[in-house]
Structure of GP-PDE domain-containing protein:
Amino acid sequence: MRIIAHRGFSAGFAENTTQSWDAALAAGAFAIETDIRFSSDGVGVCAHDADLARLFQRPEQVSALPYAELAKLENADGARIALLSDVLSYVRDGNRVLLDLKEETPQALDRLWQTISAEVPATLRPLLIAGCHSLEAVRFFCAQGETSILGFIPSPEQAEAFWHAGARSIRLWENDASPALVKRLRSLGAEVWVTSGGHGTGLAGGDHTGTDIAQLAQSGVSGLLVNDVAMATRRAEALA
């Protein structure tokens, strides 16, 4: 079972920061994951929420402020917003990085690809995983032909459409990852990843205190997105 660090080692460190990514890799993560948005002046930043309320107690949208303003923000833990270029440096160092694309307009996709092209050598781009929420984004990255593609499918019913569009890996929520669905996707040739917790589990996305990792692995799931990388890694290693 591959362990993917959901917003980094976010159970113990500020999410989407270099500290959380470093800790995740030190704990044995297969890949680090982060969320990508753009400032009002087109700078790529690592931010899960559309607004700044939860982390910075500010009402504005991330997309409403220029990067110079975003860069001044500091949360209660002293964490600041990281740049897209910060996380791409991990790819240059030979690490796998999953980008959860929170903005998938044509303009956002073009900006993202321009940054990737400028900062990641072509030989290392297969280490980069484009996490796409729309078929349009899947097709965009298929056309580039240089990165891996994960389908963050909006609903289980759309899984096969994402596969046929070019997403060779499919992400399911834990509550949606029935053995029957996993088997069907595996029969197509898809790799299946699961985000632990989330709707129907009583846990926040990425939490996995009740996740049956052994059962997921037995059903054919090969990747698990989690917040506590160290705990998940220990549990996954116990399966070997």
Q: What stands out?
A: The two ends are 9 Å apart (CA to CA). The mean pLDDT is 96. The longest helix spans residues 106-119. The chain has ten helices and ten strands.
